[in-house]
Amino acid sequence: MDRDFLDAIWLQFETEAMEHCTSSEDLLLETEFNEYEAAKIDSLFRAFHSLKGLFGTVGLNKTLELTHLIEDVIDKIRSLEVPLNNKIRGALLKCIDVLKNIITSSSQEREEIVDENLDVVKQLIVSIGITDSYADDNIKNIELKDLGDPTSVSDKSDRFATVDIESLDLLFNKVGLVSSQVNVLKRMTKLNLDSAQFIENVDKLIDILQTEVTILNQSITDLRLVSVNSLIRRLKRDVFETSTNLDKSIEFSVTGDNERADRTIINVLSSALMHLLRNSVDHGIEKNEERGQKGKGKILLDFSKEKDGLLITVSDDGKGLDRKKIEEKLRQLGLLSDGDIKKLSDPQVYDFIFQPGFSTKSDVSETSGRGVGLDVVKKNISSLGGTINVISDAGKGTKFFLKIPNIVSTEDCLVLSDLKTIYAFPTRSILWIRSVAQVDFQKHSAIRSIVHEKTIIPVHNADDLFGNLTENLDELDEKIILINVDEKAFALSYNGKLTYSEHVFDEPDLLVSKLPFVSGTTVDQDRNIIFRANLEKLFEINERAA
Amino acid sequence: MDKIKDRKVLIVDDSKLMRLLLNNIIDSMKYFSEIYEAENGREALDLLEIKKVDLILLDIEMPVMDGVEALKEIRLKHDVKVIIVSSLAQLGSSYSVKVKQLSADGVIDKPSGAVDPSLAAKRGSELKDMIKALFD
Lengths: 546, 136
What we know:
The structure holds two protein chains of two kinds.
Chain A: H1 3-29, H2 38-57, H3 61-78, H4 86-104, H5 107-116, H6 118-127, H7 132-144, H8 165-190, H9 195-223, E1 225-227, H10 229-245, E2 250-255, E3 260-262, H11 263-284, H12 288-291, E4 297-306, E5 309-316, H13 323-333, H14 338-343, H15 346-350, H16 374-383, E6 387-393, E7 397-405, E8 411-416, E9 422-426, E10 430-435, E11 449-452, E12 455-461, H17 462-466, E13 479-485, E14 488-494, E15 498-503, E16 518-523, E17 529-533, H18 535-545
Helix pairs in contact in A: 1-2, 1-4, 1-10, 2-3, 3-6, 3-7, 4-5, 4-6, 6-7, 8-9, 10-11, 11-16
Chain B: H1 2-6, E1 8-12, H2 16-29, E2 34-38, H3 41-50, E3 55-58, H4 67-77, E4 81-85, H5 94-101, E5 106-108, H6 119-135
Parallel strand pairs in B: 1-2, 1-3, 3-4, 4-5
Helix pairs in contact in B: 2-6, 3-4
């Protein structure tokens, strides 16, 4: 039997099993889901039943037993033996997490994950009011079960993207066109044309190629688009958990979830929206007893397509922003005089909630996160070239508007390609690059420095800051690069190769964000990782020294 | 041998994974010239309108039209052997009784077990024996 077939089996298993997991998750996260909705409970039961079958089909017997226990609980809910409350919903959702984890992990890890997570399932069983010891007995059965042989299967750690055939065809055609033009160009060099004719022909070709490349660029951009739908499940889950923790009854609905956005945008949006929604649950919506007749708190997340991007609104029907409290904070911080504060319109006052350190709730709550406030959300959104605004109506609710441009535009960069870890600087931040011979250094200064706009700026070595050069490149003359944004400047000395290229940077991930001077990452055609230099952090070096 | 060349089989299961596995088992028999697939009872009946098959491997639990419904109609309209391949086919389930009343030619559990290179050989032996018994 060939390996391809086995791979196909595992891939199909993963696809189908994940489908059942996510459809169960979706059901559990529906606000109006309760034990009296027989049809929905049936669907949930069927999903788990199918999962059980799938695990059996591929010989994951231990996981099958685990799923069987969960299915039993759902069966009890179906027969109205136990009520479906938030506690059980939460426990079921955690069980689905475990199953997803098992499904997507490599074969060697699977049994380990089952063992590590037996407690999660035990909690589910206990949460429906069955005694600890009974739960223990059931769990023990799983542990003692023969596991069958842990088979050797190649693991697919690759991540996939779904691409529609039409876009691929378009790409294919365009690439064909471009290569045929290249052939024309090759042939032309062999013809004995005079230089005027040659230039004329080349110009024509360049025009054609330019058009094709533009279309290619657009197609590639389209391929990077993902439906916002992919982040909604995470958000629903988060709202469910936050509201359960805070004991608030909340109805959360999402509209326009078929809109699409660039991958990078989706990643950044995910954390921004999570903060905004937690904020709405925590601060926007009142406690159950305060709401009284208003009933369940309503939070709405809406995506809609605008001419030049995506408009996202997050609205709640809570108590609205409290102008007095924000004014109080303004006075505390001494940002504005009493008279000035009084002159501000409501929207102007509300806009202060996006300032750093501006939390009107005196006790910083666990939920929205210590120290991470709306200022971070605003920063994230502006990193995408977007904007965020708020309107609020006392007693009626609060509404946040996020405008996100369609594409993250590529950034023209100066790349320091001879560093072992390659750093890139946005071209627009570079004021000049000069070889040392052309630079007037500040005389009588202990550290090498230059004068720019009447300020003394120390020169830092690129290899001191960003790590070593790939090799000793002394024969190349040393260059000084002056970086300048607004009033701030930074001078860098570097003696390696400089290149210019366009890049789209992703947010640095957890590991990379620990590096001091990185504000983004990307990978070039040769699979080199390029870091986008964090200019703010560089300026801070000089500020600290001064 | 001519007869074998003309034999056709239809696999009806909503899980593509199961269709892949059954297809692989059937294929390893070298017993059928064509293997068709359908995702549910409705699709199967539509296909039977245009294709004549000799054997149907039928799952019970499927959306749109389940195996019990499909089997009823198949028996009314077509002359074909039917093997129920379902985990619900085990004794004791209420489906099992219904299936027996509809007189399937065979009832068998879904193939399961470790996924390894000897997949078809290990899993399919029971099903293969059942199929051979029906045609020889």
